[in-house]
């Protein structure tokens, strides 16, 4: 267990309480789901060895995760791009979708949680916590400091408990496991983290902020205006200029980006710079390597001994090709020993949705109704473990709205569940 820290220990705010007050307006608006979620996530980060989460792209996926007693929900921008965006498109993870898409899914998940909780409360049975904290992907902020600020405010409004922001250039943003990533300057990323914290302070929510760096593999840099980045720019050589020292500009691409020496040194430098402005640090990696993760964490902890970390247990890794069964089995615990407190599988929803439908489709094609009944029998068998969706009418709230109608009319004549096949056969 991690020692419960004062909530803002080690966090720097380069602005004053008066700044926040002047920007907050005269009416205090409460954001209940966001604040309860943030407090709950903070408590879990300190009471559990680690918090486990899977990426969900629908409300029902998130509800099943709650029923299975996971700790939190992760909302991946990749999944939103691929199959759940307001642009109604299937996109790669390159910030091509409408900026309001992730907030839309946060809202959808929280609406599903609210309905599930209403059903449970009405029935008077069960003690499932349906309001799991949601950690949402804010990508690179979809622009600059102000864009990031407004996006974080939107995510808080719809009830996100936490957000993560990465240090890529929004206009060239890629999935962390793609090539061609362009980093913004270290200072610009710090400014975005500050804008996110300011957004949370204005809305009076203790949002969990995760800073992600792609510097381990990101070998391009938007500009050379930040001295913190100079030592990583390739081809930047000291030269004599009169009695002083100057530097050559460094190597650039045809697009004008500077080339950098990607790797652990660059990632650590950025992690150290971001640490005072975030609650957790996340270094995106290309392989599931405990040693690599440990190296990063130990360097950060030399200056920030209590800093917590996040890790993407990514489906972009071929796990069996990289690790033995024993190493895979112990992977989460070993990360937990390193103070990696938030561990998640980004694209769990995408892969489970696609594989399960492909498998059912094949079975139905080859075996007719037997193919579907195989699935239904698995649903029946799972009821003893808490699975309830086999009764699909009840799952989505038919009995709840029967109760609403009865209260309004005093009659049960129009009950949807009464006389249904679900009542008679399930």
Concise overview:
The chain has 426 residues and is α/β, with parallel strands linked by helices.
Low-confidence stretches: none
Spatially, the strands of the biggest sheet line up as: 1-2-3-4-6-11-12-13
**Termini separation (Å)?**
43 Å
The sequence of SSEs as H and E is HHEHEHHEHEEHEEEEEHEHEHHEHHHHH
Going by helix content, strand content and strand pairing, the class is alpha/beta
Main beta sheet strand tally, sense and closure: 8 strands, parallel, barrel
Q: Globular, elongated, flat, extended or rod-shaped: what is the shape?
A: globular
Radius of gyration, whole Å:
24 Å
Count of helical stretches: 16
Instruction: Indicate the percent of residues in helices.
Output: 40-55%
Overall pLDDT level: 95
Percent strand equals 5-15%
User: How many strand elements?
Assistant: 13
Protein model, in words:
44% of the residues lie in helices and 12% in strands. The model has no long low-confidence stretch (mean pLDDT 95). With 426 residues, it is α/β, with parallel strands linked by helices. The strands form three sheets. Strands 1-2-3-4-6-11-12-13 form an eight-stranded parallel barrel, surrounded by ten helices.
Features:
426 residues, 8-stranded parallel barrel
Detail the topology: elements first, then pairings:
Layout: H1 17-23, H2 32-47, E1 51-55, H3 59-67, E2 72-75, H4 77-83, H5 101-123, E3 134-137, H6 145-157, E4 162-166, E5 182-183, H7 186-202, E6 208-213, E7 220-221, E8 238-241, E9 244-247, E10 258-259, H8 264-274, E11 280-283, H9 290-301, E12 308-312, H10 319-322, H11 325-337, E13 340-345, H12 348-367, H13 369-382, H14 392-395, H15 398-409, H16 421-425
Parallel strand pairs: 1-2, 1-13, 2-3, 3-4, 4-6, 5-7, 6-11, 11-12, 12-13
Antiparallel strand pairs: 7-10, 8-9
Helix pairs in contact: 3-5, 6-7, 8-9, 12-13
